[in-house]
Specification:
Length: 442
């Protein structure tokens, strides 16, 4: 089954895109195509959870064994990538619970973002080894349907894929990142969307570190693992989420001005600071060598249009770009602490959810619709089939985070409260967030 969720109600261009998706799906042997409109979805998570709710409403015999989550702009670089992922997931049964993308390549956008994506391939490998659980990204995620229903995606976290990784890791699950699965995507089209994306990623990472991680550390059994294994695994998680993702970003804005001030004040020599300056020089040399090695390795990776001089320019601009990204991450922290935990709606989606009542496809006739000699226009099960009322889901009435161990889909405010109770924040670290959660539960 190929299931597509979207919002809001499509305009002419978007309806043409849906029709094209249906046409392509019709070319896939034995494939059933369905498109579901989620008119009041405010974020990607709402659409994904609506898809889970839609599938969970079907008879158990009709539910899929595996489910593959993909962003709308994802393209497989290899034709057999999905088949390879399914084989590896079956081969790792009992040890591997999910398969995520090995490398993401930028096929459209700025060369800076494309070059950075090549470098992030090595960072993601390092993240997976440091965590000991693999790395999970929502751009492409293949997993068993029963696990997807059991854990769901938390709409309150802007890094819903990382949040799911922590929750699954706490129960002993891990994710595989095969090197032979490469997907291509688009870079943000302008500076505003780029800044919004990076701020959202940083805000979500902070939310995972300060709200989700304490629960995993306190209650995570890692699948009934022994004490030594749990201790070393949780130490890894602390090093990654607290130190690398949360604290390390503040070293640039704090240490950079400090060392500049020291250099200006100590023109000839400062004997009492010689040791500190030597440490600084060693750190600079280590950073330079590592970045040179990683950039060289990234330049060797195949890419559709990146040339060697793109990586040379990237190396020149790496320091100012890095400072910019660190500042964006700090803005994300500020948004988290001020409870600005929301997706930014685009102009296309603003003002489109005032009516949550499902309307039939016949209520909105496009110029090339059946009444004018074409096929019916709707969210459609297949080409030439009109949308029914059951194919429009209300995002606020489907699971926002499917509660662990409950195989029946729960909806509405009761489920939302259940999931907030499963996701406490550390009172010592974030009393403000705990107050917000109490207010919501009230």
């Amino acid at each position: 089954m190929i299931l597509l969720t979207y919002n809001p109600r499509p305009n002419r261009a978007e309806q043409a895109c849906l029709d094209e998706c249906a046409r392509i799906a019709a070319m896939v042997p034995q494939a059933v195509y369905q498109a579901v409109n989620v008119p009041d979805a405010k974020c990607k998570t709402d659409g994904v959870n609506a898809a889970l709710a839609f599938l969970a409403s079907k008879p158990r015999a009709s539910q899929p064994e595996l489910i593959c989550f993909m962003d709308a702009d994802i393209i497989f670089k290899q034709e057999d990538a999905l088949a390879n992922g399914i084989q590896q997931l079956h081969a790792g049964e009992g040890k591997i619970s999910a398969v995520s993308v090995g490398r993401t390549s930028i096929h459209t956008g700025s060369f800076l973002v494309a070059a950075e994506a090549q470098l992030k391939h090595f960072l993601n490998i390092a993240y997976g080894y440091l965590l000991g659980t693999g790395w999970m990204t929502g751009a492409f995620l293949l997993m068993r349907f029963e696990l997807a229903l059991k854990y769901g995606f938390d709409r309150h976290c802007l890094n819903e894929d990382n949040d799911m990784l922590v929750r699954m890791a706490a129960d002993g699950h891990c994710c595989l990142n095969p090197a032979d699965i490469v997907v291509m995507t688009e870079a943000p089209p302008d500076m505003k969307s780029f800044l919004t994306q990076r701020t959202r990623w940083a805000q979500g990472a902070t939310d995972v570190a300060l709200c989700r991680l304490p629960l995993a550390l306190a209650a995570g059994s890692l699948g009934s693992a022994g004490f030594v294994h749990r201790a070393q695994a949780k130490t890894r998680w602390i090093l990654f989420w607290i130190f690398q993702r949360t604290i390390l970003k503040y070293m640039v804005p704090l240490l950079l001005p400090a060392f500049i001030a020291v250099a200006l004040q100590c023109q000839p020599s400062c004997e009492n600071l010689d040791g500190l300056i030597e440490v600084r020089n060693v750190l600079y040399q280590i950073y330079f060598c590592l970045m040179l090695l990683v950039i060289t390795a990234a330049a060797v990776l195949d890419h559709q249009w990146l040339k060697w001089w793109h990586f040379f320019l990237f190396a020149v601009l790496r320091v100012p770009l890095g400072i910019f990204l660190v500042e964006a991450a700090i803005v994300g922290d500020a948004q988290h602490f001020f409870s600005m935990n929301m997706w930014i709606e685009t102009a296309r989606h603003q003002g489109t959810t005032e009516s949550l009542k499902c309307t039939s496809a016949e209520d909105e006739v496009l110029p090339d619709s059946e009444k004018r000699g074409g096929q019916k226009a709707g969210v459609g099960l297949r080409p030439h089939e009109t949308a029914s009322e059951s194919q429009t889901l209300k995002a606020t009435d489907v699971s926002t985070n499917i509660c662990r161990g409950d195989w029946h889909l729960q909806v509405g405010n009761q489920l939302d409260r259940c999931c907030l109770q499963q996701r406490p924040c550390s009172g010592a670290l974030l009393p403000r967030v705990r107050a917000v959660i109490r207010a919501r539960l009230a």
